[in-house]
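Dear all,

This email documents one entry for the complex benchmark we are building for the journal club exercise. For each entry we list the sequence lines for every component of the assembly. Then comes the predicted three-dimensional structure of the complex as a token string, followed by one or two observations. Please use this as the template for your own entries, and keep the labels exactly as they appear.
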Amino acid sequence: MLEHGGRLRAAAQQYGVPLEQWIDLSTGISPWLYPMPDIPTTCWHRLPEPDDGLDTIAAQYYGNHQLLATAGSQPAIQQLPSLFAPCRVAIIGPTYNEHVAAWRHSAHELRLVDSLAAALATDARIIILCNPNNPTAMQYPPEVLLHAAAQLQARNGWLVVDEAYGDAYPEYSVTPVAGTSRAPHLITLRSLGKFFGLAGARVGFVFADSALLEQLADQLGPWTISGPARWVAQHALANTAWQTNQITHIKDAGVRLKLLMTQILAPAEPVQSTGLFSTCRLPNAQGLFKHLAERGILVRLFPNESLIRIGIAADHEWKRLELALRSWKNT
Ligand SMILES: Cc1ncc(COP(=O)(O)O)c(C=O)c1O
């Protein structure tokens, strides 16, 4: 199993701070989760039905009906390699480690590269990237991605774009055209875990060409998402007023965090932000991670890249984060 953020219990033990005193900024999950609607008992009692309306509501929210609902992005990430005959694959990194793990454990020939241009230059038939990227927060404009998808299509290849952190900036999303006649060889992944704060519900979507979606659906089997999760997801995806408010909240908090990190950490390279988290490279990223952990604030350290990634804090957590960052002296 790979390491992920959110492991508060382990941190509490290691740093001797009681569990209930921690602020968890290690995941990039929104601190404001979608308010739970009442869940009818039938959702618990009956088998989930694929025509319960979730796909229609999701198609409206994402602007594309070429979709398959999955139990979060994770099952799709794991199954994608098995949908293609062995070929050369390029992943743009550093990025979400589950992508690398899934393709590394497959029959494909994997190359890790640091840009889309480098990925295209490898002659890979499949390119995988996250937009915005986790952890670097790097973002490609949609026209660049669509051009790359067209280039890959010309070599009978595919572009996979994971937009798990994409909801706060929908103008960057290529999901509306994934798998349609405008971009038939483009596949995108979406998640309700981050923007909606519903990581525990395990709901996500794949957008792709219908033959590919059918193959994936067959591999995943029936009832991949529980009835209660489908109910909550329908409410969250339909509630446009809440979504608009959430975008404002996340963008404001994102700007505030990016500014604070820029002022205090004074990194050599600019702090990059997705709204939900901000990331920067620091010579002593490890030292900052420890400094915050000793104050009961868990962030995410990427030691190999000297990156520190901090999620946005809820309003009541902000002061503690600010004080902890202000007391940091980079050594
Ligand atoms: C880029 C990216 N994609 C996908 C996932 C997994 O999301 P889900 O909860 O939908 O499985 C994560 C989780 O951190 C992620 O960072």
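Observations: The chain has two domains: 8-33+241-326, 47-238. The chain has a mean pLDDT of 96.
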